[in-house]
Specification:
This protein is α+β, with helices and mostly antiparallel strands and 684 residues long. Helix content is 49%, strand content 21%. The protein has four domains: 5-71, Alpha-Beta Plaits; 83-181 and 295-359 and 629-681, no CATH class; 189-276, Distorted Sandwich (Calcium-transporting ATPase, cytoplasmic transduction domain A); 397-510, Calcium-transporting ATPase, cytoplasmic domain N, CATH 3.40.1110. Strands 5, 6, 7, 8, 9, 10 and 11 form a seven-stranded antiparallel β-sheet that branches. A seven-stranded mixed β-sheet has the order 12-24-23-22-13-20-21, sandwiched between helices. Helix 18 links the parallel strand 20 (528-532) and strand 21 (554-555). The longest helix has 35 residues, at 618-652. The protein is elongated and about 115 Å long. The two termini are 49 Å apart.
Amino acid sequence: MEAPRVRVFRVEGLDCADCALKVEKALSGVPGVVQAQVSFASGKAYLHLEVPGAEKQAERVVSALGYRLRPEGEVARGVLGPWPWALASGGLLLLAFLASFLLPGLAPWGYGLAALVGVFPLARRAAAALRQNPFCMQALVTVATLGALVIGAEAEAAAVVFLFLVGEVLEAYSVAQARRFLYALSELLPRRAYRLREGRVEEVSLRALRVGDLVRVPPGERVPADGVVVSGQASLEEAAFTGESLPRPKGAGDRVYGGSLLVEGSLVVKVERLPEEGFLAEMERLAEEALLRKSQAERVVDAFSRRYTPAVLALAGFVALVLPLFQGDFQGHMYKALALLLIACPCALVVSVPAAIAAGVARGARAGVLFKGGVALERLAGVRFVALDKTGTLTLGRPRLVRVVPFGISAEEALALAKGVAEGSSHPLAKAVREASGSKALPSEEHRAVPGLGAFARVEGREVGLVRPEAVSLPQEVQAQLMALSGEGFSLSLLVREGVPLALLAFQDIPRLEAQEALTRLRQLGLKPILLTGDREAPALALAAALGLASEEVRAGLSPLEKLRLVEEMESRGGVAMVGDGVNDAPALARATVGLAVAEGTEVASRSADVGLLGLSALPRAFRLSRLTLSVIRQNVGLAVGLKGLFLLTTLLGLTGLWPAVLADNGALVLVTLNSLRLLWARL
């Protein structure tokens, strides 16, 4: 049986979490749709289809609910929200208000007409969603409006509908702004590329690019696709999706991301990933997936809202039907009950958390932090320890040859011999020898590798090798140099010719430029960094000293299992964020409270992690964003619950009526959305 196809659609008119739930329930019931997921934050529907043509039926079902289903990528037309109905209702309301002074007898009819015109689109959507959710906000506003007309409160009925429609327009606008910010990353890609072919430059669209193509990037242009620099020197600005304001120097062999802006210089780049499959597309995809995963706070709020609405509706029924039997004043109690109907909708409360999560995920994507779910964004704020891998995380993961200590020959001759041997080896240390500046490699042949010992080749007719110093017996002089260099934290290789030591080669994995600053900022946030590494203690302590870490903050010589146990221990003592990049970090990343993987690491590490980091400098930004998002969530929930509670009390006491009740709902909805949007421009 053929596996279900996944189609992605944009849902027009999706302006609240309740709307998303209605659409999702309706789509789940369409024949041929195996699974439907609708994200309010992204405004998208993900349909798992097993029957060809099921999307046509899905479009009809969604259209009946008052929304539109459009294929992803198709541009929406017109202004979002029910603005024409708000304009018509507001105009009639204004005319009725003027008539109340000139022709008082016609004013009630004018208010009634304004209310009916405004409530029509709400009643239509409520009727379409009756089977999915009979207590949606549109239904409650419709009942309250018609009830107000019945008891003679025409002016308030018209005001309620108009305020509600204006609130929906404002809400649709603010939500659209958040979504536009989230997907603005894809707009960083240029519209064209300059491809090199047969010695000439041709201007082509991005769709014409293929993996392996060479493209020239002139000053002031953006890199069209992910790739590797083949030639040239330039400064690239990646601030739009890393948060780093300073341009970075790039040269041959460096990796570049599509969308980066070339400030000065010129580059020739070999395309490794097509624009639609590159890093920016991956960031957008991860952000979308994150918005589909609910955080713990969302689950709590959802559970509360499912109980809140029935409870307030029951209270409204009690006020309308029971209290008049004992206190009389049926019309007055009915008026209070209608106001309670408006307060019963939990829209602002339901939106308070996902709106903040969506804004947080979007802001993270622009700061080089890719959250894979709301849970990770939420949990990161509560951890106490930060465990960091050494190689590839705090360091570049590319050893450099930093010193040559010769015995009986010159350093230049030693390096030339070593380069000759390194020509036939893929070991990282051999690569570092080949990249070292200075002498050229001597001609070599008969390359071979001996596991556990080293690499060998015939150079100038004699066998020369780069071997592990521990694997051979050494003269006292060489042994003394070996001990001294080991104490300084270097990784060492011994150059031998026919068994005679010729030189010691000292290598060092260079710390990342941003590593020390990142650790300093973590401490400023009150976090305790711990270095976990499988490397020897001497190199680990040397790196720690360079980065300002104390010796007690270093755990060296660890196996993957020992790393896992230490992470489990720290997790039980207050929560731990594990930052890594390699296959051996995967178990610890998965076990930590929150796992973070650097983008340049292995695929296994990236899959095991909850958060992706474009660079180490993004690490402190991830913590600040998490804490700020959690603060906004608390503010939103407090605002939504506080306003509802206040107007619930004042309505029961008879101090407020219908239009303040709709202000409590729509006002809170707009306020929590706008408060969440603050995260999009937060300084990290």
